[in-house]
Amino acid sequence: MEEDEVRVLQSVRIKLGEAKNLQPHPSTHRLRDCFCTVNLDQEEVFRTQVVEKCLCPFFGEDYYCEIPRSFRFLSFYLYDRVLRRDTVIGKVAIDREKLSMYNGKDTWFAVQQVDDNSEVQGKVHLEITVKEVISDGGNVIHQLLVRVLECQGLPIVNDRCDPYAVVTLTGPTRNEQKKTKVKKETTNPFFNEVFYFEVSRPGSYARKDHFDVEEEDLEKLEIKVELFNACNLKLGEMPFLGEVRIALKEILPNPMYNAWYFLQPRNGRKQGKGSLRLNITYTEDHVLNAQYYDTLRKLLLDSAEAKHVSSCAAVVLGEVCREKQEAAMPLVRLLLCHSAAVPFLTALADSEIAHTSDANTIFRGNSLASKCIDEVMKQTGIPYLQLTLKPVVDMICEEHKLCEIDPVKLKDSENLDANVKNLKQYVTQVFRAVMDSAKHCPTVMSDIFFSLRQSAIKHFPDDPDVKYTAVSSFIFLRFFAPAILSPNLFHLRDHCPDQQTSRTLKLISKTIQAFGSLLKSRSCNMKEPFMAEFYETFDDDCRQDVKNFLDLISLSGKRNTIIRDQEIVLKEGRVTKRAQGRRKLSLRNFKERWLRLTNLHLSYHRTKDSPPLCIIPLEDILAVEGVEEESFKKKNMFQVIQPQRTLYVQASNCVEAKSWMDVLARVSQSNTRLEFYHPAAYISGTWLCCKALIESANGCKHCTGRPATNIELDIDSDRETQRIYSLFINNVDLLEKMQEACGSRAVYDGPTTEQEYAAFNIEEPYRMFLSLRDVTVTVRELEEHHERIRSTRFQKTKYGSVEYPIGDKSHHNTVRPSLSL
Predict the structure, then answer these.
(1) What CATH number has the domain bearing residue 653?
(2) Is residue 730 included in any domain, yes or no?
């Protein structure tokens, strides 16, 4: 990466809440079966489950993704499913520039109506020139030249995109229209057609600085460029794709404009009925070259070896962040990436336990130590959870048995004894799965648990159970129980379970928490009497099983055997695959397949449960790269390059394509990778990219250089350091106030000082002051680098370029003066 190059990495975290006040079906007045989709512009990347027979559906789903491309709107479409056909109810479209306004807030958005004229995407490249032409009679005639060059990112309608453009000069007395040729099967058409319009009256000699057109007419003339799709031209259907309107008065003072424009909808947005509650957190990480982060990264990694952990840079981060979770996520990922998480958390946890007076309250609060340990389990324990809980959770969700044991919530048709039996069966299966999983607990988690129990024994030597409760408060209460309660948040299920299954999982989660708490008196500590009675039905051997399990997962230095002994599914899903042509006469057509990636191989199947049609060992994957759209006239395609052949795959959307490419590249990083590849396909005896005729010809483009990551955990060290820098710079006022507090306490540590700076936890003022000084200086220097690069990039930015087209909210359908690219 060049010195001033910046990687802009986008991500979004969405909580889809509920919709309210939706209108019944207009003809039948029936209730609706609703679901909601998340879209980048009009490309669907996620959909919720269907909520049946409701006008105020509650979705309750969470979605996170890395956004791999630029986009204009983050859109949410509400659909009604009628006889397996989906009809759009309305949408919420949020401009990317406004997403930060709603970060982390529950917000109700009005649902807008959707029609063909309001759904647009893509951009068009126009060149507009004013020329003087001498007529045969010697008069000067002014002509307007509109060149339609090309378009990018047009939508596919009815499985085709055959676009053409219509250029119109409109005004009170003018409506002159011309159109381009149709371009077949492309979303990025290249037209390069010129259209001429006269804008001064023939027969009059107009001055060079003025046109002989009445002023009021001049104000109303405009150029309109419309895009249509001729996909069903024979049937007379030409879907509207978008338009650009440019006022003529903005063109006349300048001889030529050459710019890209965002296509706009024909009609303004119509307000519909109803609203949708969303919680959106959109993040843009502007990641610089690795060298810029070296100093800050060193300060944070040195925290792992600091003699006085309570005053290190990592603890400073926790102090200035109002939410400890906000600091824990990037900090833990950075420490894991550099194998520094265990020593840091060992020291931090020991410090917290030393300041705890009652063994029963160890890690009860939301401290930096507890949040960091939670984050370590989330980052390293997902394969462990999938191996341990996924089979039984899948069974519970699919069997759908009744398990309600609360007499108040029991329905008349339900039998309490049968429900108790069902629930006990499920709890027993979950409990046994957990107890049998100790040997698969990740090494990092085991090392941290070992440190926790040793510290607890040291500080509370008279409590025989403290070595168990210190560990069980994490592994049961903060790991297994939440994963059972919300399996979709821990990658155990794709969607939030239905209401009945969610209740069953909640009851199981409560029981597993009770097992993990090692209660000496069970019933008196259960808040709900019916749960206490249910818990009493389990024998005392369970308590000893829990202790044995905690002993096993707390062995220091144990080696994790998951990756070596067990096949773990890393990713799977439905894709469209091009046949590899293993036989000379076989067709290379596209078919839907189920693609599955494990820690051992990549395979594809006809269906999810069918045997593999092909198995590709990971060591045979030499590179994973994108494929140019024009190769197969398909979006979101990537290629898995092998020694003898290449597997071409189309993902369902851009997010899925990036996800597949990232995980495949990560698991194959240790292989001998190619230096060059072909970005296009070999079709009809020719590589479309470089026109080479031999299929075995060397590639013509350098393979993608991916940033150094922790291969097992997929962690980008520079990105995590950038996020920590952002937290520091956004709270720089607190850094400065903490320095004042340290200085005041070093001079006078009395009641006045304690009251003024009570918000800060400062144990060693002098050492904390030194850490704060180092952090502040480093962050300020990094801020200067950001500002310099930002300024350079701003100077190079051209409004109207392909990266920054005209047509955003602030410059809707206008052209800046003196625009010429």
Answers:
(1) 2.30.29.30
(2) no
Looking at the chain, how many residues does it have?
821
Residues 502-561: tens digit of each pLDDT: 999 999 999 998 888 765 444 445 678 888 878 777 767 788 889 999 999 998 765 554
Element (H, E) at 601: strand 601-605
C-alpha distances (whole Å) from 207 to each of 132, 140, 215, 248, 544 are: 11, 9, 15, 18, 100
Instruction: Report the candidate in 385, 479, 467, 440 with the shortest Cα–Cα distance to residue 558.
Output: 440
For residues 124 and 106, the answer to whether their CB atoms sit within 8 Å is no
CA angle 26, 29, 32 (to 5 degrees): 90
Tokens of 272: 């519909």
Q: Do 529 and 654 belong to one domain?
A: no
Q: Are 444 and 554 in contact (CB under 8 A)?
A: no
CA atoms of 114 and 162, how far apart (whole Å): 23
The answer to whether residues 446 and 438 touch, using CB atoms and an 8 Å cutoff, is no
User: What DSSP letter does each residue of 170-190 carry, written as one string?
Assistant: ESSS-EEEEE-----S-SS-E
Given a contact cutoff of 8 angstroms between Cβ atoms, the answer to whether 764 and 311 are in contact is yes
Residues paired with 592 in a beta bridge: 576
The identity of residue 160, as a single letter, is R
How is 248-267 classified by DSSP, letter by letter? Answer: GGGTTTSSEEEEEEE-B-SS
Q: Would the pLDDT of 693 be above 80?
A: yes
pTM of this structure: 0.85
SS3 491: coil
- The CA-atom distances, in angstroms, between 744 and each of 310, 315, 320, 388 are 18, 20, 18, 53
Higher pLDDT, 518 or 591: 591
Task: Give the domain extent around 457.
Answer: 380-564
What is the rounded CA–CA span in Å between residue 184 and residue 726? Answer: 47
CB neighbour list of residue 419: distance below 8 Å, 6 or more residues apart: 402, 403, 404, 405, 410
- Alpha helices of 358-402 — where are they, by DSSP H? 368-380, 382-388, 390-399
CA angle 364/368/370 to nearest 5° reads 40
Contact 776, 731 (CB under 8 A): no
What pLDDT digit, counting tens, does each position of 273-323 carry? 799 999 999 999 999 999 999 999 999 999 888 778 888 999 999 988 888
Angle at 198 (CA atoms; ends 194, 202), nearest 5 degrees: 145
Q: How many domains does the chain have?
A: 4
Rg (CA), the chain: 32
Distances (CA, A) of 548 to 388, 478, 541, 542: 17, 19, 11, 10
CB atoms within 10 A of CB 480: 29
Q: Rounded to the nearest 10 degrees, how much is the dihedral formed by the CA atoms of 246, 252, 254, 260? A: 10
- Residues 406 and 520 placed together within one structural domain of the fold: yes
Point out the domain boundary residue: 262, 294, 320.
Answer: 262
Q: Which of these three, 248, 280, 312, is where a domain ends?
A: 280
Q: How confident is the model at residue 775 (pLDDT cuts 50, 70, 90)?
A: very high
Query: Does residue 518 lie within any of the structural domains?
Result: yes
Picking from 250, 137, 155, 133, the residue whose alpha carbon sits closest to that of residue 200 is 133
Taking the C-alpha atoms of residue 423 and residue 405, their distance in angstroms, rounded to an integer, is 8
816 assigned to some structural domain: no
From residue 3, how far is each of 7, 288, 296, 722 by CA, in Å? Answer: 12, 8, 18, 16
Pairing, β 58-67 against β 51-54: unpaired
| Contacts with 580 (C-beta within 8 Å, 6 or more apart), sequence order | 588, 614, 645, 646, 647
Q: How far is 531 from 33, CA to CA, in rounded Å?
A: 35
- The reply to whether 92 and 202 lie within a common domain is no
Nearest to 378 by CA among 52, 735, 64, 610: 64
Type and span of the H or E element at 765: helix 765-796
